[in-house]
Amino acid sequence: MFHWASSSMKRRMPWLASLLVCGFLVLAFLLIDSHSASALPIPAGKVYAIPAFARKYGMPCSACHEAWPKLNNFGQLFKDNGYQMGNDRDAPIFQQPAYWPVSFRMTPQWHRVSVDRADINDPATGSMTEGRLTTHGFDLSGMDILTGGTLAKNISFLLVPAAESDAVFGFESANVRFSNLLKSSWLNIKVGKFELDNMISEKRIMTLSDFGGYQIYHYQPVTELVTPPTTLPFTFGLGDNQIGAELSGHSKNSYTRYSAALLSSNDGSVGVPNGHGYDTYLTFSQAFAAGSLGLQRVGAFAYIGRAPTYLTTSSLLADGFGQKSFYRAGFFGLWYLKKLDVMTMYTRGGDNVFLGTGTPSFSPLPAGAQGPTWNAGFIETHVTVNPQFILVNRYELIRMSRQALPVTPGVFEPGVSVPSANFGDIDALVFGYRYYPFMSSRAGFAFHNEYSVVRQRGVAPVSGRDLTNNSLFIGFDFIF
Amino acid sequence: MRANKSMQWMFLAAALQVLPSLAIAQQGEIHVGKVTGHADAGKQLYYRFCWGCHGFRGDGNGENGPYLNILPRNFVAATFKCRSTPTGTLPTDEDLYDSVGRGFTNSNMPAWISLTKQQRADMVAFIKTFSPRWKTDKSGDPINVPAEPAVTLDSIKHGKELFTKLECWKCHGQEGRGDGPSASTLTDSNDQPIRPYNFAAGSRFKCGTTNHDLYKIFMTGLDGTPMPSFADVIKPEDAWDLVHYLRTLQVTHKSPELALWMTTKEGAEIVKAQKIVGTPTGADIEQ
User: Fold this and answer.
1) Which domains does chain B have, with CATH numbers?
2) What is the reported pTM?
3) What is the ipTM of this complex?
4) Share of chain B above pLDDT 90, in %
5) Which of A13, A60, A103, B193 is the most exposed place for a label (fewest CB within 10 A)?
6) Distance from CA of A152 to the nearest CA of B (A)
7) What is the pLDDT of residues A303-333, one digit of tens each?
8) Longest dimension (CA), chain A
9) Cβ separation of B281 and A289 shorter than 8 Å?
10) Chain A: nearest CA to B49, how far in angstroms?
């Protein structure tokens, strides 16, 4: 089984929203079929939008969010300032003693997930067949507890204990930030577990369905995910929160931004597994005003990491060794054309041949092995009809430019060969809308409808044909 | 001939339709430098960013109004504190534009510098649609601010005398802490208690950061508050002396005036005595 790289009007508007809901449902049911169901793993999205800030400053969600959870530049500046507006209200001493900077978010939902070529174990015959699997029903997302704010002037924190839908807790974020060091906005330090400084944030993603996440942030060649059983699996996601320290800075209006992070090479896991390795993440972006169109931004990023290829165990300490390098680098643009905004991203990824083939560094490489590389990109559009209604659409593609293993047509044998040059390529499409029936400074609520479909080349477990997943999601996203 | 006549009528009818719309468009426009703000664009921004405090109707009765101890500005009343224009007059477009970008550090109003200049100008254009005053009155003419003379001990000492003579201390206190004998009785135009500015706290002035801004504050007054205009009371050169002295009351804020004042025994003792008490915010205290 392959694991997909997914993560998670105004008052005049109700009639329009109702119309769109009906239209959406009709369209969705035309696009999908209704075969019988069985369960599929459902990763939960972690979405950051913190009404505790809205309550503290008395501002509606729309002040900081284009449409929550997506930040606008004012929200970005607030975040860059260490959750400070820059006025006297920032200091905790100005808050009512009863003020508690905590928000909760959850999304009751109905969703439907379908896989067209699943490997199905027939209990009657004991044989493996290939066929469509579909599951649907009412469900819950995970729950985020978002706490954040200032401890003192220029010292802020963010703590996000988050539960998966089965109530298994983890710390999504836990960091403290020292802002405006030497009285300069160009010097801020954050330590702990945090989201990488991605201006296109996976934590503030506008899509919630099972296959509606950013594939680009989690993509790894299939040869790394399906490896010989003795191999230490290599897992990394640019969208995953990482543990480390980040130096960042920005101009007074956050039009110019940079960050440089030093991170433990463990993809955000606690307990320092795969210890003694460090990764680096660098970002830079520049925004510029374009008259009445709005604020445009372009930027670049680069992640240079290392990951172990084998694990040593002892009665005292386990550790990963034989570390090899990988990188993700690219650039992005945020383009505003009044109510239409477009997010574009290009990423180049590459892994060391040992990581790409799942080979311990002390072992010989498979014949013809190479370090895998790929190109990826997406274009995401939003039409913000008004702060209470937004249409979302994204098309994403990932193309392998070099396979880790030699191509033997039609044959995928982990550690030996791949069936085609485009093995593992991805095309993903997602569209939907969010309707916020009310807008206040106390809580957030959205009626969320979305459909997503992802096709990956040559990875059907039985036949090796293309595998297509789709997901329909209808939920009530609330945060208070 | 008849065809020409018809054409003339058509042109006239078209002009009659277009002209009022042009007039309306001009009413909804403001100009700040080279930027032209449009009220229709500002309306969308207002109902995204501002209504939570300033209210749907711009009357300062947003859902958060009751929870703020400095009430949001009532745009319908069109009384503005930070102006470059004489007391009682409407501010210029630049005044409003500057206020939006600067924010008010001792209130909930943030600095909207993350918005583009165009967006801020659009916001100002829309804010001006809330009050009929903008249709009946013109903005005042900005006051003339003469060049600032050099900071000298004499000017500081003269400013100190003026501080006493003009009875600034009654509200702001002898040490500028905002704790004068009248401080607790002050209310603003909304009958809300209002605190005089505490110079010792070191926070930014409400209407700017520079000496030029401070000069304007007491020469134009803060309309809607008990802070009057002193334009008719003191001469410009005296006003600058007062500015220089007021800077020395900002004991936690480094300035040439404070540095010069500290070179005197009198100044050093006063500043030392003031610093021990600290500031309400706890910010920048040197114990």
Assistant:
1) 29-136 (1.10.760.10), 153-277 (1.10.760.10)
2) 0.85
3) 0.81
4) 65
5) B193
6) 9
7) 999 998 888 777 777 778 889 999 999 999 9
8) 72
9) no
10) 4
